[in-house]
Write a structure and sequence with these properties.
- There is one protein chain.
- This protein is of the alpha+beta class.
- The chain has a domain at 6-68 and 106-177 and 270-370: FAD/NAD(P)-binding domain.
- It contains 10 helices and 20 strands.
- The protein has an 8-stranded mixed β-sheet with strand order 6-5-14-15-16-13-17-20, with helices on both faces. The chain has a 6-stranded mixed β-sheet with strand order 8-2-1-12-19-18.
- Helix 8 (299-315) packs antiparallel against helix 9 and helix 9 runs antiparallel to helix 10.
- It is globular and about 65 Å long.
Length: 374
């Protein structure tokens, strides 16, 4: 019998929902505590590499992801000129194995809906409108208080509540995300027929101009610039202006950047909790424990891998001792560090204008790391 019969997961992001499905499959009583009043239907697209797809395949949801997403196996490099000259088309590494594509682009709401349905099918309960405002724990249980005055008790509490994790703060872990100096514009737009993979344009008015197909008719496009205050800015107009230097599919993308376009701006941030990821019966997962810029598209995959490893450690433990949660962190920290440091380094090289940087070597390091199953 698993040592933790009743588990709470704070946050209904992809990592938390994956963990909920894995634990509920094993017969645990799992509740996902989400402060939002309902599932979000907002968001652009997300890039998933094979190491995430491998875990989703094992969960049995790969067919649904394939139906809603867009798979591809190559990466294009284009010049930042009006013709968008194709410089190279590279075979991407199938880090999830030869039976999966190298990459899947998918709308974020579609991904969330599929994983959420899988967790609920397994028996997990998602409690919306449940904001955790305090917690206490003993050797036997964790008790939390909610914004609505409820008191709830669990054997294990998992903080999967993102970059600004309230659970991380509540257990006294001091690491916080810091900005890296870059910001990114993202737009969710119709997919030009020419877009069948991710293409990257390095240089021009942005450090990176890129896009990722997410379905038969959809894609997201992005532009990376120096971080600045863009609060209240006219996102479509600014993004359209930056995109004017890029040709190829960007010509059609720009036409979609009107006043109705779904455009957002965020700063690149990073952090890594080097010490223990738990205090007593409370443990962190995903962006609560580590985060990185999206320069190598591994953020979501790292959270999904965290979920698989944490579930493995909890389900095979004889007692919920410190050693169980310490093993989880020890298995995850080296891999998370490699991804975080590589993601930050790639951005730093661009900020410094380094033309002699060993980008292929860095990407090879990451691929070699994540192709090994967790």
């Amino acid at each position: 019998m698993p040592v933790a019969q009743k588990v709470a997961i704070v946050g209904s992001g992809i990592g938390g929902l994956t963990l909920a499905a894995l634990l509920a499959d094993a017969g645990l009583d799992v509740e996902v505590l989400e402060r939002a009043q309902a599932p979000s239907t907002l968001g652009s697209g997300i890039t998933l590499q094979g190491n995430a797809l491998r875990i989703f395949r094992d969960l049995g949801i790969w067919p649904q992801l394939l139906e809603k997403g867009y798979p591809f196996d190559t990466l294009g490099l284009r010049a930042p000129d009006p013709e968008a000259t194709v410089l190279a088309v590279l075979d991407d590494v199938r880090v999830g194995g030869n039976d999966l594509p190298a990459t899947l682009g998918i709308p974020r709401p579609e991904l969330a809906a599929i994983v959420r349905a899988r967790a609920e099918q397994a028996g997990a309960v998602i409690r919306y409108g449940t904001a955790v405002v305090g917690l206490e724990q003993t050797d036997e249980a964790v008790s939390i208080s909610t914004a609505t005055g409820q008191r709830l008790s669990y054997d294990l509490l998992v903080g999967a509540d993102g970059l600004n994790s309230s659970v991380r703060s509540a257990i006294g872990i001091e690491e916080r995300p810091r900005r890296t100096g870059m910001g990114i514009w993202r737009a969710f737009v119709p997919r030009p027929a020419e877009v069948t993979r991710t293409d990257l344009y390095y240089g021009g008015p942005a450090y990176i101009a890129g896009y990722c197909p997410t379905g038969p008719d959809t894609m997201y496009a992005y532009l990376v610039e120096d971080a600045q205050d863009r609060h209240g800015a006219d996102g479509p107009a600014i993004m359209g202006g930056l995109a004017a230097a890029y040709g190829g599919p960007w010509t059609e993308i720009r036409r979609s950047l009107d006043e109705h376009a779904n455009v957002n701006y965020t700063h690149f941030t990073t952090h890594l909790v080097e010490g223990p990821w738990h205090r007593g019966r409370v443990v962190l997962l995903g962006d609560a424990a580590h985060s990185c810029p999206p320069t190598i598209a591994q953020g979501a995959a790292m959270a999904v891998e965290d979920a698989a490893v944490l579930a493995d450690e909890v389900l095979r433990a004889d007692a919920l001792e410190d050693a169980v949660l310490a093993r989880y962190r020890d298995r995850r920290l080296p891999r998370a560090r490699t991804v975080v440091e590589a993601s930050v380094q790639l951005g730093q090289w661009m900020l410094e204008g380094r033309r002699d940087a060993d980008v292929p070597g860095l990407m090879h390091l990451v691929s070699d790391t994540v192709k090994v199953p967790v």
